[in-house]
Amino acid sequence: MSSNHIPRPRVACEISAERVVAGRAGEGAQTLEAASAQAIPNGALVPGLQQANVTAREALVLALRDALSAVAGRSRDVCLVIPDATTRIMLLDFDTLPAKAQEADAVVRFRLKKSLPFEVEHSAVSFDRQGTADPVRLVAAITPRNILEEYESLVREAGYNPGAVVPSMIATLGVVDGSRPTMVIKVERGTTTFAIVDNNQLLLHRALENGGSAVSGESLVDDVNTSLVYFEDRYSVGVDRVLVTGVESTQALQEALSASANIRVEELVSSGRAAAAGNVPRSALAAVVGALVS
C-alpha cells in the first residue's frame, strides 16, 4: 500500500480476458484525459483463483506496452486493475479489531482461514474499515500471491511499475455515488459481479461465473432479484437505481424491474465521463475511470 505522501498515480490499467485498457487522469484526477485499449488473443488470459492465469505471456506484455505507451507519457507508475475472478471479496464484522496494523492483519487472516478455497497464508490480504461505528465492518480482498505476481510481473516486463493493485469491481465503485442505495453490475468475460452500496459503504458483493458468453439484461433478472431481496430483507432499504457495464440489451432488465418496483437501469459510465476515450468502448472503461477519479 502506498503512503499518503506518495503522489497518486495518474495512470491506471486494467487487464481482462478480452483486452488491456489504459487511461490517464487529467489534472486534479477528476476527469479522464486519455484512454487506449488493446485486444488480446482469445485464451491468452484465463482469470481464476487456483490455476495459472497467463497462457500467452508475450502477447499480454505487448498489449500492455502498446496500451500504456499511448497514454502514460513519462510516467512509469501504474494503478493495476485485475479481474474479479482473481480475488475473493469478503464483508466481515468484528466486535473489536486491534489498532496495530500487523495485529489486525493476523486477526483478519485467522477469520478467513475456513472461508477460502485456497491458503490464506500464501495470499495477499488487504482490508478497509467501513465507517466508524461498532461493530467493526471490513471489506477484505484476498488474492493468492502466485496469481497476483503473475499480473504484476506482466506490467514490470512491459516497462512499468504496478503500484496499487485493485480488483475490477472495487475499482469500478470509484465511479459510483455511494451515498444512496445503488446496485452495480459489471460483466467481463467469465465473471458477472454484483455490488450494492449505500451510505458510502459496500453492503453486498457477489461474483458469479458466466461461462465467458455475452450476458443480456434478460438473463440477469433472476440474479438481480435475488440480490435485491436479500439486501432489502437485511437492511430494510430498497434500491432504486441499477448501474450496469458490459451488459447487452439492458432494456429487458429495465422492463422486468419496472414491473415490480420503481428502479431505473442506467449505464455506469456516462458519455461525459467517456469523452476522452476515443475508440475505447464505454463498457470497457468503468474500472480504469473508477481507479483514477475516485
How does this model look, in words?
Helix 5 packs across helix 6. The strands form 3 sheets. Strands 3-2-1-4-8 form a 5-stranded mixed beta sheet, sandwiched between helices. A 5-stranded mixed beta sheet has the order 11-10-9-12-13, with helices on one face. The chain has a 3-stranded antiparallel beta sheet with strand order 5-7-6. It is globular. It is of the alpha/beta class and 294 residues long. A hairpin with a 3-residue loop joins strand 1 and strand 2. It has 3 domains: 151 residues, ATPase, nucleotide binding domain (Nucleotidyltransferase, domain 5, 2-Layer Sandwich), CATH 3.30.420; 50 residues; 91 residues, ATPase, nucleotide binding domain (Nucleotidyltransferase, domain 5).
Question: Helices and strands in order, then pairings?
Answer:
Elements: E1 11-15, E2 19-25, E3 32-39, H1 57-69, E4 77-82, E5 88-94, H2 101-112, E6 123-130, E7 136-144, H3 145-157, E8 161-167, H4 168-172, E9 182-188, E10 191-198, E11 201-209, H5 217-235, E12 241-245, H6 251-258, E13 264-267, H7 286-293
Parallel strand pairs: 1-4, 4-8, 9-12, 12-13
Antiparallel strand pairs: 1-2, 2-3, 5-7, 6-7, 9-10, 10-11
Helix pairs in contact: 5-6
Q: Report mean pLDDT, rounded to a whole number.
A: 90
- Write the CATH architecture name of the largest domain: 2-Layer Sandwich
Helix fraction by DSSP (H/I, runs of at least 4) = 25-40%
Number of strands: 13
